[in-house]
Amino acid sequence: MGSLVSDFKVLQKAGTSERQEFARRYVSSIAGISPEVDANIAGLANLVLGTLPEDYSVRNTGFPTKRAIELLREKRRLAGYINQIGKQEGVVRNAVEVGTGPAAILAIATAVHHPRIEKITAIEINSRSADCARAVVELFGFGGVIDVVEGNALLLDPVETDLMVTETFDKGLVGEPGVAIVQHYREAAKRLLPDSVNLHAGLFSTDSYRQLDRAARGRSNWVNLGRVDLTGLGDHVEGALTVSDSSPSKNLYTLTTLLQGQDEVIPFYDDVITGPALIKRNVLSGLGQNDLPASLSFSYPHSTGAELTRTVSTVDFSPVAVA
Ligand SMILES: C[S@@+](CC[C@H](N)C(=O)[O-])C[C@H]1O[C@@H](n2cnc3c(N)ncnc32)[C@H](O)[C@@H]1O
To answer: Which ligand 1 atom sits nearest the alpha carbon of residue 170?
Structure first.
């Protein structure tokens, strides 16, 4: 694959099959993290920028389009999702992607990996991102397969589908509506990507995102609280840690990795999909060394949609020591 910028220009004059062939090469270059992947992703980001109307910086519902374009540069995140989309067993005749963003990249990857697919509905809440996604889908030759729908997926009836894919997670299940979206599709979709998470917690005295991120990548000082089924979660996550560290003024953070069945969608050591997220500031501040609790319980609301019934359920974790 040569220079993507010039390829994209050539593509505008190409027929459907050439466009789809280009999409195939493009998606496999991301999935395999080939040497030219950075240039390819940057090319796509620039392409999306080129499709944006002039007033794109204006605030819009949902995730800002500009930030979603930056996310396209997270090649391991994209590769993890794209490879997992390719691993779906059996025939995938139709699919839904919720939160397709301005490049509809996971919907396009689904079309590429499942050539017998008849229809993909790609839902996006941000109207500007939805407009961009439509332009990219056309350019990649999948206008006849991928239907970009603008709207809040939580307000739309979930349609029966072979596969529902969503990347709407942020930090420790806080912030974005991923849990609510998975729950929304739990009956309508035969397969959910993701269907569960591995939740981790840790106590840290730093607020530096860089340091936390480094700790996350090395998995050091994080306690794996276990697997949490996203379809069975109420509106709170609760857990307990046994504290074996006496320093005061630590903060409790959580982070999650996404799973489908036994597969970790994005390998933990490569990239952490969500987090770390600060749950409660200074959970231990104000406590003298002798007052430290032997165990620390925490509970925080994750991001369910307000439309869902607010039932509280508890996820029980075994108490574990913090390094
Ligand atoms: C983290 S971005 C991921 C974009 C793209 N799938 C990717 O992998 O690069 C999540 C997207 O979901 C959209 N979104 C969030 N909540 C949504 C909802 N309830 N319905 C539809 N789209 C939603 C946001 O506007 C944003 O574009």
So the answer is: 1
